[in-house]
Amino acid sequence: MATFSSFQDILPDPNNYLSEAGSSQSGDAGASLGPGFTSVKFSSKQPTMGTRTNSGRYIARSVAAHSWNIDISYNSLTRAEFEPVFSFLMSRQGKLNPFFIELPQYLVSQDSTFATSVISNPPTTSVKIAEGSSVPAGRTYFRTSYSGSGTPRQGDIFTITDTSNSNHTKAYQVTRVETSTDYNTSFDAATNPGSGQFRLHFSPPLVSATSDTSILDFTEPRIRVVQSKDVQEYSLGVDGLYKFSLSVEEAAP
């Protein structure tokens, strides 16, 4: 007899199982990996309002929170490949219940040395915020401690595990990585990186204050999303294959 404590809440893909009972356990009845994506369209949405004065000066401000929008396309699927994905989405009841997505291009860091280090030795080589105090919301950088090899790269995605705020599920993208041997000396000297540290810049800004020593997850980061449409549909060809695509948008708890 197999038992489990929670239903799978990650979209089935080649890295995530879904069983007939709804678990993520590979050994459960009917458990199989989901189909891969044909293509992924990844969009950064930051609503802003801009005004230009008569003298030509341009003034802008954010008017709403940032979100990631994702469009996923699949190859034509057999029924065995299609039904687990479609039934998983049906269980979310349209836009009502969020779930998580892992995107193949962000499963590991671009720096293979860094990726291997954080995968092989957690939590020994975990990347942690190292500022001495909490980091306020709105910041686009923080100093981190890291005892492993390599560093994150521009374009990597990470999420934050903050034990004092389980609702901090936002995904961030790296824009700069300053090390102890290569950093801007005129930028916030209090956060200059020392040995075993780097100053990480990212976008969008922190959505909430974040505790010191919070862990940054660069391995299989999960983006919390809801379906973008109230209607989910597919088409069935004369060859018996299902054609299907999916649009989702990031959703904070």
Give a brief outline of the structure:
The chain is mainly beta.
Entry keywords:
17 strands; 2 domains; Phosphorylase Kinase, domain 1; mainly beta; globular; 253 residues; Elongation Factor Tu (Ef-tu), domain 3; 2 helices; six-stranded antiparallel barrel; five-stranded antiparallel beta sheet
Describe this structure as you would to a colleague:
There is one protein chain. This protein is mainly beta and 253 residues long. It folds into 2 domains: 17-104 and 223-250, 2-Layer Sandwich (Phosphorylase Kinase, domain 1); 108-217, Elongation Factor Tu (Ef-tu), domain 3, CATH 2.40.30. The chain is built from 2 helices and 17 strands. A 6-stranded antiparallel β-barrel has the order 8-9-12-11-10-13. It is globular, with a radius of gyration of 21 Å. The model has no long low-confidence stretch (mean pLDDT 93).
Architecture blueprint of SSEs:
Blueprint: E1 17-18, E2 32-33, E3 39-45, E4 48-52, E5 58-62, E6 67-73, H1 79-91, E7 99-101, H2 112-120, E8 127-129, E9 141-145, E10 157-161, E11 172-179, E12 197-203, E13 215-217, E14 223-227, E15 235-236, E16 242-243, E17 245-250
Antiparallel strand pairs: 1-2, 3-6, 4-5, 6-17, 7-14, 8-9, 8-13, 9-12, 10-11, 10-13, 11-12, 14-17, 15-16
The coarse silhouette is: globular
- Encode the helix/strand succession as letters: EEEEEEHEHEEEEEEEEEE
What does the radius of gyration come to? Answer: 21 Å
| Total count of strands | 17
- Overall tally of domains: 2
Strand order of the largest sheet: 8-9-12-11-10-13
CATH class of the largest domain: Alpha Beta
- Arithmetic mean of pLDDT: 93
Strand content: 25-35%
CATH architecture of the largest domain: 2-Layer Sandwich
In terms of per-residue confidence, which ranges show pLDDT below 50 for 5 or more consecutive residues?
none
What profile does the largest beta sheet have? 6 strands, antiparallel, barrel
Structural class designation: mainly beta
**How is the CATH topology of the largest domain named?**
Phosphorylase Kinase, domain 1
Regarding quaternary structure, what we see is single chain
How many helices does DSSP assign? 2
Q: Assign a percent range to the helix content.
A: under 10%
Distance between the termini: 34 Å
